[in-house]
Amino acid sequence: MEAMAVDRKRIQSAWQGRISGCLLGKPVELISILQGQNALQSYLEANHAWPLRDYVPFAEDPLVKLAGRASCRGFIRRSEPDDDINYTVLALMMLEEHGLDLKTTHVAVAWLRLLPAGATFTAERAAYRALLQLTGDSAILGLPPGFDLSACAQNPWSEWIGAQIRADLYGWVCPGRPRLAADLARRDAALSHTGDGIHAAAFIAALAAAIPASPSIAQAMEAARAEIPAGSASAEAIAFGRSLVGQTDAVSRLHERYQSLSPVHAVNNLALVVWGLLSGEPDFSSAIGDAVAAGWDTDCNGATVGGLWGISGKPIPRHWTAPWQGRVAVNLAGVGELALPDLIDRTVALAIKLETS
To answer: What global pTM score does this model have?
Structure first.
């Protein structure tokens, strides 16, 4: 697979798809994680949103209120801050500064300078805590090359979904270069994750890079799967997700197979992403709607499926993009709210710069 010219329309659709998918899953994340997929389906059915093909309606459910009315249909004015989008913007900022020289130490310093601890969860929060203990005041001046960060990834959540949601942009800016995209994702993931936590991130980045250079998403998956160990649980999850395409009992089989895993583990959510992306390939609304309605980590899966669907270059339907008006809010230090056209311009400029690197 060879490097490709940067396509602005693909980058635009990738951003739009990722943000829209995240917004779709955000209001029902807590229902899904705390009460399960059946409760999620019941909420959607009770509010005439099954099958899910538009933003989630708001109802007086305490978990939906806690997750955020501002991300529900009729209340959306912008893309509200969310860790899925924080990390995509942060990846852009880190590559703008370091390019292909990006190292895990650069990621660590970027977290300390830009990422609020309160906006981190599970593996990321544990890594952040360890990072503070390791660095003391030294991070003010940056970390020296070779600084040992290995303790940061030694946490109980190191194979959960966190690194997987940080990976997309590494593929967007490396079209046709899945190996490079996977390597960049590994450098980022290594700060907080191990094993399948890293493999899942590498696969998503490689897939985002392979899609523009492949005749189909299914063929792009073959190129991306080559970037992770063949016997890993992530590789098995990819194969299982693919085997469920077209099966009417796909969601129940996903939940049955992975019932022992956390709702925010990397492996089960990776299988769901693969199934949702391939099942909804012709139709964006089906892809993100079914991925979110299937449960587990709904905003993460909606964002990942949406971004991967978008990088294929097809336009995102206007009913998904119009409500948030190109306004992208993050809670990175000193950033606040961004305009979608600026994010697209910056991503295209970065990808062009990396073409010759």
So the answer is: 0.97
